Amino acid sequence: MSHRSFTRRTTSTVAGLAVVALAATGCGGDDADTGGGGGGDAAEMETIQIGTLPIANAAAMNLGVQEGFFEEEGLELEQTVTQTGNEIITGMVGGDYDFGFVGYISAGIAAAQGVPVCALVANDATGTSPEDDWQVLVAAGDSPIDGPEDLAGATVSVNGLGGVAEVMLKAALDKAGVDWSTVELIEVPFPEVPAAVAAGRIDAGYTSEPFVTTVLDQGGKVAFAPQSYIAPEYPNGMYATSQQFLQENPEIAERFEAAMIKSLEYAQENPDAIREIIPTYTQIPEDVAQRMRLPVFQTEMKMDAIEEQMGFLEAYDIVEEAPSAEELVCGD
């Protein structure tokens, strides 16, 4: 594939994927003449299909639609909300979606299995500490678990064995010098973690907002923040595309990236707008949206961190051979 590199980069320090390595079908774009530029009258508008998730992390894209950043680039978004990144990846390579909101880990697993996807533009990262991270391990308020050293022998839930939560937890425990093999991992979906903690079914549970706030409202606590422990503002999610769509529609991909960067910059500068828009496309109540911890929005790919995450996939036997960051990120 030969095309110019779209993605801004910096060099700073799932359960098995249920997709098959498809030859991506001709997808999206409506075969319209893009003209290589954005905005303008309705005749020049390009409709693109987006696979997305009903979570706070998608706020930047929704703000971008609201503020007209995609319209300025001559793009109209049609969103399909799914429940998992794996569904989105399957949809992209099958031609249902032109772009999809997924995690670097999920995309890395797919690419390792020969699925032709690549990371186009960054989106979000974790917080910096247990006090502001939005995807963490929670426990009951009277739990003796107050850090990674207390997890040995504990029963801990993740939303999917072999997925992002398990990979990040093991990497964080390794960094803390804790033998992760002494931790009993079980599957509990994120929304069910508050009830599991309250009932004592688990010692600690990996969950995300708004369920972190739910646990705190119940008198629980954040016991450990694995991802921000690995590194502050650690890359989490991004927008991907199929290799075929990128090869056949480089101008549309460039315009989508430009609109997303405007959207992410706007989100960085307007946290109140994020809180206002979250209830409009999720089931998160307005009062919770006003109090919950927000994702950190990023405009640049942190290549060293992505490379590290791909290494985790091999280290914890998720895949035999993971792609490098350079292979995963769309580019030359």
TrEMBL record:
Residues 1-23 form the signal peptide. The keyword Signal applies. Residues 47-267 form the Solute-binding protein family 3/N-terminal domain. Transmembrane segments: none annotated. Keywords: Signal. The keyword Signal applies. It is found in: Periplasm. GO terms for cellular component: periplasmic space. InterPro entries: Solute-binding_3/MltF_N (IPR001638), SsuA/THI5 (IPR015168). Belongs to the bacterial solute-binding protein SsuA/TauA family. This is NitT/TauT family transport system substrate-binding protein. It comes from Blastococcus colisei. The lineage of its organism: Bacteria, Bacillati, Actinomycetota, Actinomycetes, Geodermatophilales.
